[in-house]
């Protein structure tokens, strides 16, 4: 997410709030909660860890709000009621986000230092070409990209032409 360093945290907070409202969760992992609606049998509730933010009564109230009266629920981590609602709704997207603050040449060094030490943040200046190599390095890390070099049997690998893929992506053989 590209942000203007001269606008402070206002721009970041507005964009985060807007993305949160449409179901995009930045720099968060999917809650480790098993949820399965059933045809009958009532509510089967269990947790593998002590819950500090949710209780069985609260889970039942949330399920009743969504008109779910029969379900299996298993908490594998201490989660918030909002996390549980996200699991019930099931259409949330969890993705990594790198906050890139541009125009750092126009703010004080103390402010640059503060922004640079924020989690998931990189400070750059496109105009002065500052810190662009570090940004590229972090983008590769956040997007989990890798270079694949191919070769035909019996030939030397061509390192000038790479295929860029996400780590963990499956490759289908051709022909």
UniProtKB/TrEMBL annotation:
Pfam families: MMR_HSR1_Xtn. GO terms for molecular function: GTP binding; GTPase activity. Transmembrane segments: none annotated. It comes from Coregonus suidteri. PROSITE patterns: G_OBG. Coiled coil: none annotated. The keyword Nucleotide-binding applies. Signal peptide: none annotated. This is OBG-type G domain-containing protein. The keyword Nucleotide-binding applies. Keywords: Nucleotide-binding. Residues 1-144 form the OBG-type G domain.
